[in-house]
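User: My collaborator sent over this chain with a note saying "see what the structure looks like." That's all I know about it. Can you take a look?
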Amino acid sequence: KVIERITSCGIPLVRLEAGGIVRDMAAHSDALRTATKYLLKALAALDYDAINVSATDLEIGREFLEEQLGAKKDRLISANLVDSETSQPLFAQYRIISRTLQTGETVKIGVTGITRDRLAVGGSAVKKVYAVIESLEALKKVLPQLKDCDIVVLLAYMNRDALANDVLNRLENDAGVDI
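Assistant: Without extra context I'll predict from the sequence alone. Here is the result:
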């Protein structure tokens, strides 16, 4: 209802998800898997513009995430999740979203996302098919590609006070992250 109200008023809206959608152990629980399925379908129905994939989200499988989002699977992003064998990005590293303001001006919003590695809890029978590269290293490659954007948003699935602030503090002052 909130999204419908904002949209009906002609206010430009950018829908973003920072990650951590998949509940811990969803890959091993039918109830959590079903809940995750419908949450992802809701994000697709609400037309989310970018969904940062966290390492915990990826535990349920890339195919599962993409299947639930259907035609909106291109909304999945991550600057630092890569294939463990090829080191190639598993998802788009960023998205550029255009919005027209009420003044008629078009604004380009660059969105990228990072995740912390999954914390190991006991042994896992799941083979890890992904790797999490260091956030700063990933951002230094991605942020220059967003330099022509009016606003750059960094979605971070990590402890904000410790890890996320550390990443932001280690970026150069002119890195270009606005939010």
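A starting point for your reply to your collaborator: The two ends are 25 Å apart (CA to CA).
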